[in-house]
Amino acid sequence: MYVCSCFGITEKQVREHAEAGACTPRQIASASKAGTDCGSCVRSIQSILGRGACPRRELLGTAAAEPTTTVAEPLVAQSAVVRAVATSAGLEAA
């Protein structure tokens, strides 16, 4: 059965992409273009993918638990730039 009539993508093709590692409708779209034109098939793709275990989600959960940088580091650098620009423009930085 066709899931995406815009690009002629079948349910079987969506399942094959899912077995190859595509876990989200966006990843299916990257692999097959399904869902990138009118978008009416995105909900069908979501239902085909279901809520099963996704190896990439598990890896993302592990990576999120151990951040390599903190959010404050870029903000400190940005604040220094704002102060420098304000000073050179003769403004008082907040």
Structural topology:
Layout: E1 2-4, E2 9-10, H1 11-19, H2 25-32, H3 42-49, H4 55-65, H5 72-88
Antiparallel strand pairs: 1-2
Description of the molecule:
The protein is 56% helix and 5% strand. It starts with a strand and ends in a 6-residue tail after the last helix. The protein is mainly alpha-helical and 94 residues long.
- Which series of helices and strands comes N to C? EEHHHHH
Percent of residues in helical segments?
55-70%
- What is the percentage of strand-forming residues? 5-15%
Low-confidence stretches: none
Main sheet strand line-up: 1-2
Top keywords for this entry?
single chain, two-stranded antiparallel sheet, 94 residues
In short:
Helices cover 56% and strands 5% of the residues. The protein has 94 residues and is mainly α. Strand 1 (2-4) and strand 2 (9-10) form a beta hairpin.
